[in-house]
């Protein structure tokens, strides 16, 4: 094992643990802070790949602006800890756990099989991570998904405004 692989595995493990914290923390503010940690660790992973633009965009846009929006919504909605519901007889919980474990296994197989099977060094393209290459890929190959994400973010903003407006009445 080379040092790069060890650093990647440590950062990936920390990122996954922070992402699990987003799901399992019962407090919404702690969950949001765990999401900030996930975004920051993803930014460090981008830095290890020499994708500086992606790293700083991840840090500024997501950990900065999006998290401010999330925390604003949390504070406006005044979310408190809800009493635990009796989930023992709910089949959705078991089905969700099975599907979640299958999804983790599928992602793990996709990540770890190529990670440990290649012995050759794979070099990134010369313009990898540069703003020009990202812009060309974003607005040519991924134009429609880019617009779909922008519509999804717009719907989220409108939804949060409507929830806040309903709550203020």
Protein described:
- The structure is a single chain.
- The protein is an all-alpha fold.
- It has 6 helices and no strands.
- Helix 1 (3-24) runs antiparallel to helix 2 (28-48) and helix 2 runs antiparallel to helix 3.
- It is globular.
- 5% of the residues are buried.
The radius of gyration over CA amounts to 20 Å
Could you describe the largest sheet, including whether it forms a barrel? none
Number of strands: 0
The mean pLDDT is 83
The ordered string of helix (H) and strand (E) elements is: HHHHHH
Indicate the overall shape. globular
Characteristics of this structure?
single chain
Secondary-structure blueprint:
Elements lengths: L2 H22 L3 H21 L3 H26 L13 H27 L13 H11 L1 H26 L1
Helix pairs in contact: 1-2, 2-3
Briefly summarize what is shown.
This protein is an all-alpha fold. The protein is built from 6 helices and no strands.
């Amino acid at each position: 094992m080379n040092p790069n692989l060890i650093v990647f595995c440590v950062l990936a493990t920390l990122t996954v643990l922070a992402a699990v914290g987003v799901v399992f923390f019962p407090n919404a503010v702690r969950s949001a802070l765990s999401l900030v940690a996930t975004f920051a660790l993803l930014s460090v992973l981008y830095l290890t790949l020499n994708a500086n633009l992606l790293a700083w965009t991840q840090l500024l846009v997501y950990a900065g602006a999006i998290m401010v929006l999330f925390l604003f919504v949390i504070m406006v909605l005044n979310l408190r800890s809800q009493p635990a519901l009796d989930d023992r007889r709910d089949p959705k919980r078991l089905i969700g756990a099975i599907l979640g474990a299958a999804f983790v296994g599928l992602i793990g197989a996709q990540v770890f099989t190529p990670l440990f099977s290649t012995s050759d060094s794979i070099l990134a393209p010369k313009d990898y991570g540069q703003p020009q290459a990202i812009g060309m890929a974003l607005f040519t190959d991924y134009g429609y998904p880019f617009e779909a994400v922008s519509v999804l973010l717009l719907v989220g903003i409108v939804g949060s405004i409507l929830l806040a407006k309903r709550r203020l009445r």
